[in-house]
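[job 4417] fold queue: 2 targets
>>> target A
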Amino acid sequence: MTDLNPNLHPNLHRIAGQAVDGAIGRGLTVATGESLTAGMLAAMLADTPGASEMLQGGVVSYQNAVKVDVLGVPRELLDAVGSVDGQVAAAMAAGARRICGADIGVSTTGVAGPEPHDGKAVGTVFIGLATADGSTSYGYAFEGSRPEIRALACAAALERLLEALSS
């Protein structure tokens, strides 16, 4: 069981269930690369019955060294833009997809607070998505406490995963 309070985002388990069912239904596998959510995304998927049929694995890359050394995010990119950036999120998703051998990679990076980070405001979040067609990212500006921002980021990542599974 995850330590995520379901009251922070009451639809989280439902969305995770839909993502697991969608991946299984299409015969696709998923991997995660998480900074901001530190494993919550993978845990939400794994809490869903049947997840073992679609969840390949995940990497918690809280530190930039892990983003570079494990996920393959270019160090020059991190030096230029910091860890909270759409290009970084896209590279994290692509790295998770590659190293876990998955069809889809999804990633999270952002600032949960209480202080800004890398010149980015609290609530700034990027979700990365990688498929065989390439990688992209989506930016968000969330408001709330640290746990609320992390829950919202997890929900956004699951929703982007659902969109990828629907296309």
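>>> target B
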Amino acid sequence: MTDPISRRNFLASSALATGALAAGAVSAATPSPHPRPRHPGPNEQITLGFIGTGGMGRGLINTFKRFDDVRIAAVCDVYEPHALEAVSTSGGNPDVYDDFRRVIDREDIDAVVIATPDHWHAIPSILACQADKDVYCEKPLAWSIGEGSLVAKASEKHQRVTQMGNLIHATDNYHRIAEIVQSGCLGKITKARVWMARDGKSDFLGTPENGTPPAGCNYDMWLGPAPERPFNPNRFTFNWRFFWDYGGGFLSDFVCHLVDPVLWGMKAKAPEFIVASGGRYALDDNGETPDTLEVIYRFPTDWQLIWSLQTSAPHGFRGRSSGIEFVGTKGTLHGHYNDYVIIPNPGEEIVEPEPTLPRSPGHHREWLNKIKSRELCSCNFRYGHELTAVGHLGNIALRTQEALQWDSGAERFTNSEEANGHLFRNEYRKPWDLPKV
């Protein structure tokens, strides 16, 4: 993990990146010109670069390194211990960087895997698409609705093979729930509910004092486009998701998992009305995002979705810490990641449909296969944007305390300019800005 060769590579690449930035060699918003790469053939290796190698990033390295047709050429993280641990995890000798643009600039890399905090999803994803790299990006797709829209547009404009890291989507159980709902055997669906019930103990952050970034951390690069803030341990690894500068709390973190079978099963794209209420009521710490939240979404075809989050509820809800429910005129389906049960209404007999949806070879294998075939992935960035936006809409309704009308075609709120102000970050910290798409 602390191999001196890997450490030398990391320090050399850091010095190279610093020199390039000082000379203005690479714009923060415009990638270097790239010739369109040759796509790997069916029997050829795919060369990957990893951007963000914390816990999730190293988990993805562990997953992808098991495929015989994958070569890991580069890893990148602004925190040196994470970058060097990624080298050890890879089982090889990838080059090490602390500036993601050095990875994107490499012509030998076919595709990149992005597992940074949410506020660092959009810029690398767009630049990678513009550099003709295929992209796997962890969920949620982007920090805001506006960013997600640009990421999806960039992937389509440059014809990239993309997959958002929503791996439960590939399971047989989620396919089965979606095709049951689509079949109509539950009758007309009038309500869907997804919920999370937390014990509260594991979510308590405390109130540590501001301090100095740990050794080996390029904190300025970690902040990137987010506002300048003093370093606080709770704003750093993992807990960053509970601060509005970098994430959107449990709603942004889990919407892609829990709401996925709802949009999929209902063949829905976006709600038209959103109202929310909640706050950080149970936890007395320095976190910002809600620990208690109810969001109601009304969809155009006369049904609604309810998101429920409750902290200090170790007993769960309906006996489960999280779950999914569809209420139909003939019966109700309760489900979760790995199972489901159907409860018929009195006097109703529900016959489950035959399988209709093609199954996935696995979320990560699917992306690799599609890189070679140049076909659309099931969690491509357009779908990822639609799914992620549901979470952002709920958070915007909470933060504005308004009942919002949403025009999904225009991607604008029709009744609130304050809400429209949340579609993008008010100001991107220099020298960072969103690339033009």
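[job 4417] complete. Note on B: The mean pLDDT is 92.
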